[in-house]
Amino acid sequence: MTAFEAVLFDCDGVLVDSESITNRVLCTMLNESGWPISTEECLREFIGKTVRSQAALIEARTGKPLTDAWMAAFYERRNAALRAELVAIDGALSAVSESHALCAGRIACASGADRAKVEMQLAQVGMAPYFEGRVFSGHELPRSKPFPDVYLAAAAALGVEPARCLVIEDTVTGVTAGVAAGATVWGYFPADQGHASAEQLLEAGASCVFGDMGELPAMLRAIGQASASA
């Protein structure tokens, strides 16, 4: 039993350990294009954002247009690296399976990334069956995170009011989107995370932060029990 009717998961950094892989490929390609950006700066600039949403910045720093061909090359190199290296976040598979059971199947993956990437990653780490038909991409909506569109779409598809949804996010951009949707947001902040502080996630509107994805089911049960006894 849980106090929430649905759990909406971000993907990158919450379910799969993909952000350092994608960032490395992006950083390499930006350097090749004439922007001598460090991996640390690249992570700060792009974490939680789509590459296309930062087109003006990329074009200003490289002096070149962000073309469809460049994006296609980025996707190809990124996906090859992900297929070779991607692993699940520790504890995420059990968190997903138990959340699925606690919410009677009402869970979804709501990502700012392109659908092909999200579905490839979920399949690679064994989570795809839990999200079948319930993967939502900001690329397919009028606005991506930090706007709430992807979370509103996920809640609507599940038939749950956003206020009855719990969102799990690891970036300020994502927390902002979940809060704007009207959901409760818990910030995932592992000890080795370097792109956002716990304080920043709380300031963005997360109601709490936690550092072990494997603890999520127990947290859901605890808040459900507290709600039932209130």
Automatic annotation (TrEMBL):
GO terms for molecular function: hydrolase activity; metal ion binding. Keywords: Hydrolase, Magnesium, Metal-binding. InterPro entries: Beta-PGM-like, HAD-like_sf, HAD-SF_hydro_IA, HAD_sf, PGP-like_dom2. Pfam families: Hydrolase. Its cofactor is Mg(2+). NCBIfam families: HAD-SF-IA-v3. Belongs to the HAD-like hydrolase superfamily. CbbY/CbbZ/Gph/YieH family. This is HAD-superfamily hydrolase, subfamily IA, variant 3. It comes from Delftia acidovorans (strain DSM 14801 / SPH-1).
